[in-house]
Amino acid sequence: MAENNSYNKITTDGDTILVIGPDEARLCVQSCLLQAASKVFKAMFGPHYKEGQRSGLNGSKKEIPLPEDDVGAMTIICAVIHHRNDIIPGEMSSSEVLKISVVADKYDCKVALKHAIHQWLDHRNVVSLKDLTELMTAAYLLDEAQAFSAITYTIIMEHTGSYLSFAQDQIDFGVPWELFCK
């Protein structure tokens, strides 16, 4: 397959193209940085997985398909890992933070995102129950116990009305219901 040079560059000297999502967005990255940030990426790029075996023809970049992942979330995660703060948005919606947390959980790169996560989970100006729920779920997926506790406390203190409707509206939001029943 001929190399398609139409991709977003996280780094100018990348050796790998991540082909992300159903639209096959292309993201140029440095595989060694991803491997250092994630055991999952380390295994994926290693010799025992087919992704690690894929090398480009004639020195072209390796292509790694990630068809189930969110392009925006993977781009931000890779930007953090590659120290590209210039392309990370200053503010993000709670739904964007949740998408990032799902991808970060999948690739186990939470430690590499730790400092950015604290800013993303800041809920002081969040008033919407939906937004708080998304941030709570993100905190849970990112193993951020203090943020999870603070956000759930805010939900408990600020939510007016029945929690039954809350449960019906948020049937599968990523946090096991057993946590609320202990």
Q: How many helical stretches?
A: 9
N-C termini distance: 54 Å
State the major sheet: 4 strands, mixed
* Tally of discrete structural domains: 2
The CATH class designation of the largest domain is Alpha Beta
Task: Give the CA-based shape.
Answer: elongated
The CATH homologous superfamily of the largest domain is called Potassium Channel Kv1.1, Chain A
Question: What is the gyration radius calculated from CA atoms?
Answer: 18 Å
CATH architecture annotation of the largest domain:
2-Layer Sandwich
Order of helices and strands: EEEHHHEHHHHHH
* Averaged pLDDT: 84
Strand content: 5-15%
Helix content: 40-55%
Task: Give an overview of the whole structure.
The chain has 182 residues and is of the alpha/beta class. The protein has 2 domains: 107 residues, 2-Layer Sandwich (Potassium Channel Kv1.1, Chain A), CATH 3.30.710.10; 62 residues. 46% of the residues lie in helices and 9% in strands. A 4-stranded mixed sheet has the order 1-3-2-4. A hairpin with a 4-residue loop joins strand 2 and strand 3. Helix 4 crosses helix 5, helix 5 runs parallel beside helix 7 and helix 7 runs antiparallel to helix 8. It starts with 7 loop residues before the first strand and ends in a 13-residue tail after the last helix. The N terminus is likely disordered.
